[in-house]
Amino acid sequence: MRRRYRAAYPPEFRRQMVELHRAGRSLRDLAPEFEPFLDTIADWVRQSDADAGKRPDLPSTVDRKELTKLRRENHRLRQERDILAKAAAWFARDKTPSGSLSS
Fold first, then answer.
1. Which of 9, 45, 46, 82 has its Cα between 20 and 30 A from that of 58?
2. What is the pTM of this model?
3. CA 102/CA 47 separation, integer angstroms
4. 16-53 pLDDT, tens digit each
5. Is residue 66 part of a domain?
């Protein structure tokens, strides 16, 4: 059975859900009315609190993007290092002079 994937909710929609929750609407009321799962809206509220500095235990959106960027860069640098190590080993193995005249 194929899984269905839904496109990400637009940032403005997420902000509206967070604002509705902060205005007093419960997550249990918002979820069936607007479609996202209750846990999804709760995640948006938590992330909004982290971005506002109310949740120092969670990374902000900026921190998460930076961490993702650094992880990608780290992965690329490790690949480059491994390729260079293999090339150096290959060239070191092939150090014998070829075509030299021996008497």
1. 9
2. 0.68
3. 74
4. 999 999 999 999 999 999 999 999 999 999 999 999 99
5. yes
DSSP letter (8 states) at residue 52? T
Phi-psi region of 8 (alpha: psi -120 to 50; beta: other; left: phi over 0): beta
Please indicate, yes or no, if residue 83 is contained in any of the structural domains.
yes
CA 13/CA 34 separation, integer angstroms: 10
Tokens of 39: 């846990």
- Domain of residue 19, residue span: 8-58
- Residue whose C-alpha is closest to residue 83's, from 97, 70, 75, 95: 75
Burial state string for 28-54 with b = 16 or more CB within 10 A and e = fewer than 16: eebbeeeebeeeebeebbebbbbbeee
